[in-house]
Amino acid sequence: MANKTSKITKKIEYIFEALIWNFRFFIIAPVIFSLLSALRFIIIGTVDIWAGLTYPFDVQDPEGEATIKIVGYIIGGIDYYLIGIVLLIFAFGIYELFISEIDIRHEDDSNILQSESLEELKSKLVNVIVVALIVSLFKRMLNLEIQQVSDVVYISSAILLISISQYLLNLSHLHPSKDSHLLENDNQQSPNQDDK
């Protein structure tokens, strides 16, 4: 009787675990919508850049309103491209982390979109988002009219904060966290302990 109850319990446990495991396929929804959103942003960026390329340029006033509008369109297009790249990295990363490795990727040597962990995916996303913010700030500053001394201070502070954040991001890549070093040391010590 106890043996039969144990078998039923194991069967229920197996069915429940299979159900939980297969729930990861719901991740396909954000993957698909991220890819569609990436495509949309790439189209918007292309339209923006095309508007900048076709905008009439005033040769007699190279630093006038026309130039500022052209630069605004092109920088805006780049900003949309960067957001599209963020969505593409996100879609690719969560698909590989939660559902399956993309076999066709192994035909290329490129590992631009590859993410081994959620931490690496987050790091890639943060880098691209910071660059997108820098580009967006640059676009806003083109149309900003400086009227007071405080405006210059605010602009300088914004540039300084972005520079510091970029420096800290690069610093974190050059010097991995202590936890990763501890894991590496544990992995190196474990084979030696097995030999003993």
Give a description of the structure:
- The chain is an all-alpha fold and 196 residues long.
- It has two domains: 11-143, no CATH class; 147-189.
- The protein contains six helices and no strands.
- It has helices spanning 2-22, 28-54, 65-98, 118-142, 149-174, 178-195.
- Helix 4 runs antiparallel to helix 5.
- It is elongated.
- Mean pLDDT is 76; it is low at 178-184 and 190-196.
Features:
2 domains, elongated, transmembrane helix, 196 residues, mainly alpha, 6 helices, 77% helix
Q: Could you say how many structural domains there are in total?
A: 2
β-strand number: 0
**Number of alpha- plus pi-helical segments:** 6
Which blocks of ≥5 consecutive residues have pLDDT under 50? Answer: 178-184, 190-196
Helix content: over 70%
Q: Give a quick account of the main beta sheet: strands, pairing sense, barrel closure.
A: none
Quick take:
The chain is mostly helical and 196 residues long. The protein is 77% helix and 0% strand.
Q: Would you spell out the secondary-structure blueprint of this structure?
A:
Elements: H1 2-22, H2 28-54, H3 65-98, H4 118-142, H5 149-174, H6 178-195
Helix pairs in contact: 2-3, 3-4, 4-5
